[in-house]
Amino acid sequence: KEEDGLWEETFKSHTDTKPNGPTSISLDFSLPGVEHVYGIPEHADDLKLKTTDGGDPYRLYNLDVFQYELYNPMALYGSIPVMLAHNTQRTMGIFWLNAAETWVDISSNTMLDFVQGSSEKPQTDVRWISESGIIDVFIMLGPKPSDVFSQYASLTGTQSFPPLASLGYHQCRWNYNDQEDVKSVDQGFDQHDIPYDFIWLDIEHADGKRYFTWDPHKFSQPKEMLQGLMDKKRKMVAIVDPHIKVDSGYKIHNEITSKDFYVKNKDGGNYEGWCWPGGNENGQTNPIVTTLLVAFQGSMENLFTWNDMNEPSVFNGPEVTMHKDALHGKWEHRDIHNMYGLYVQMATAEGQIQRSGGAERPFVLTRAFFAGSQRFGAVWTGDNAAEWDHLKISIPMCLSLGLVGVSFCGADVGGFFKNPSTELLVRWYQTGAYQPFFRAHAHLDTTRREPWLFGPENTALIREAVRQRYALLPYWYQLFFQAYRTGMPVMRPLWVDYPKDTATFTIDDEFLIGSDLLVHPVTEEGSRGVTAYLPGAGEVWYDVHTFQKHNGAQNLYIPVTLSSIPVFQRGGSIIPRKDRVRRSSACMENDPYTLYVALSPKKFAEGKLYIDDGHSFNYDTKKEFIHRSLTFANNKKISCITMKITSISEMIWHANLLIHFQTGKETPVDFEFDSSMSVLTLRKPGMNAGDDWTLLLQ
Asked: Could you list the active site residues?
């Protein structure tokens, strides 16, 4: 029976010819014993997925969404068709490998009202529906959360190991006007003693939106500009969208045309659509073109890339994207739509690697993504707004991405659209400083919001948040090394480390960084206090600012002021820091590490320290790195560090502390002991991080 829309479908003024006719595939999954499911980003919603009974399914279809709605299953910029299910017995995952438009329906008997005390077993049912393709599903059986992460990583790869500098602070807006503007902003950070690593340029830097070029008037000396940043050990990112201006005088367009790299329309001609380069005078490039362009433009080594609008965005297309019957070779766009952005980022990352002859790690940020995008760089949550609810939602959005492999994620600090209040901006910096990708960004029509434009008191608060980020860079870096090696998320929900604690299963206003830092950002306007859940019966947590100790398995009320960032270190952990903060991460390269040891009444403390050159592939190709185990234990050699005391209270003023090296050499070390806070500080022990050593109390 022929029905309207089966063989040809119209949407407003657009027509989808459906040359292969009506298709779809679907499969249902029942999850007995499961109440909590997570994942399938990207959606601006809670961490725990909701039932869709009586409403719209979660949609996975990469779109350029203008001012997206919150707490809504609507499609956003990226799609990862991976769902995790968790209960106290098991964690498991479903990977629905399909890049076509996909819908996910969720129903659960526990989400309905039924008689209290009912013996009905909880169950969640999930239906996946894709427009085209084949049924290709991977079930990841766990049973532990870490097992699911490694199982998924074995299929799609782990998070790429980023350059250390990319874990620092990034300053961006649409747009810095010209070279003088860039120089002025750069100097402003030095004048106000705020560190940063990258300054970013949006679309206005190019000559008439011709990507891979510079505006000849506003950016007439790009190498001079980049060299000025390099002299300060800083870097720049320039945007490259996948839209190429049709211009016979534009080398890039001519090269693409000669190699026939443009996407085709249904009739075989070059696909043309409207985006930033202008009217119907630009074509969507085939993603493969980007690698040729980035590799051979002769750009300086401190210039990196931002892939935006790569859903792909087409202003005059259906739903502001490419027609489904466009062609990539023999493949219809409908079949590969959600992976288009992945290939743009992949090609860009490969181009950067080629630029250095394979020596240097790339840095590429993308807005659109798919399963496996983690192998090629970072992701951000798109065009958010300067509103408190958008600050709050950044936490579950990043947590959801981390659960499905994308650890290097963040949200635009301050909000992209609209102008934040001073309080909101400060709180956003404090939150962003503890999320993996830390970038401030703003729309063309917003007022300027460099960190020093809101009065000296607020400048000081923002400076302190950014400095806290830089002090913790050694910890962030070793966590990203772990993510690269194992697939473990860097920023993670509490239940990942406390899988049997049901109180953690729906928490998404706080999170863990690795296993050892717990962060509860202040995301309510005018807040005078927050309540943080500290997990772990029998464990202790230390306020990182005051060193005050708190027991685990409790809800702790924390009074806050505008300067407060509630952060706790887990008892039994050792966290490496660099407390001598300078203007960029590279300037801190040779500064000493400080180890923060948080004791536990039940177990010895342990941690990791990872060191390499911070930018090359030598850690892999030449095995040039230091990866140390750090242990604080009771008179027992565990690894490279052993301290012969069981609690700080054993420290007395007439004690002697010695550093014992594996060679037999012993060196005394100065120390201070604050009995009021039970804090022992060792001053300038003078050992190399690569040496084996033991701390002795005599």
From this structure: 308, 383
